[in-house]
Write a structure and sequence with these properties.
The protein has two helices and 13 strands. The protein is mainly beta and 255 residues long.
């Protein structure tokens, strides 16, 4: 797999060079006017896209809603690149890389590779190139994984816009809609949670409530390109011995 990833990187660099322009500081930007106006439909073509994104998130922890306004919060603000190798059959290989951390608290996450497909239940695998990390590297949750989570959908392809399906938290309601032109929305909630699994990084607490809502906004010129994503995720955490003892963790993301 490591060799495969390296080969794809080289191919992407060669092909994409014809479809990019250089912005401030020599950073590459996709020339969308040179890109295909729609996804290939014969399953034989491949296109390469390069985007520069700005990431902004705020995470707040509070015990009751009345105390939310005064609760401590943490901001992460960074710029990153997002490169996509998109095959006509719907298979996609993408890589996220951090360029600058404006908030100073991003850590040092290595580039993250993701294999996914268009449509439902779309996440295949997440990779890290061993050459980008030390020999004793242990994967830790970071905001690049949070970005991946905003594009991942657990819904089964072809099974409709409203489903009750398996997620990492348990069985959840997943609803997909198009509230307006060039804006799509995915909502998750109503989960039958697996209480025996601690999916947080806070020892001694379990997730008792989970909600997620993501909005995907398309480019007004190139219908196939999602240029902005807004999402909000809410976790309710409590003690397994007393559900009155706990907190809510809420994160808002824009990129």
């Amino acid at each position: 797999m490591k060799l495969l990833l390296l080969v794809l990187v080289v191919a992407a660099a060669v092909i994409a060079e014809e479809n990019v322009e250089y912005g401030e500081g020599g950073r590459r930007k996709a020339k969308r006017e040179d890109m295909p106006r729609q996804y290939p439909i014969d399953g034989t073509e491949t296109r390469v896209l390069h985007f520069d994104y700005t990431y902004l998130s705020e995470t707040v922890m509070y015990d009751t809603l009345e105390n939310k306004i005064d609760a401590p919060s943490v901001y992460i603000n960074a710029s990153l690149t997002f490169d996509i190798l998109h095959h006509g059959n719907g298979d996609i290989l993408a890589v996220w890389k951090v360029v600058d951390c404006f908030s100073g608290n991003c850590g040092a996450p290595p580039p993250v590779w993701v294999s996914f497909v268009q449509g439902g239940n779309n996440l295949n695998a997440v990779y890290v190139d061993k050459e980008d990390v030390p020999a004793d590297f242990v994967p830790r949750w970071n905001f690049l994984y949070a970005i991946i989570h905003t594009i991942y959908t657990p819904a089964e392809g072809g099974e409709g816009d409203e489903q009750y399906t398996k997620t990492k938290y348990g069985m959840c309601d997943v609803h997909f809609s198009r509230p307006e032109d060039k804006r799509f929305r995915r909502k998750m909630g109503g989960c039958d949670l697996i209480g025996s699994t601690n999916t947080s990084r806070i020892d001694g607490l379990i997730v008792t409530r989970y909600k997620n809502e993501a909005h995907y906004i398309q480019n007004t010129k190139v219908d196939a390109d999602i240029v902005r994503i807004e999402s909000i995720e809410e976790l309710g955490l409590s003690s397994p011995f007393d559900h009155n003892f706990g907190m809510t963790v809420e994160t808002r993301i824009e990129r």
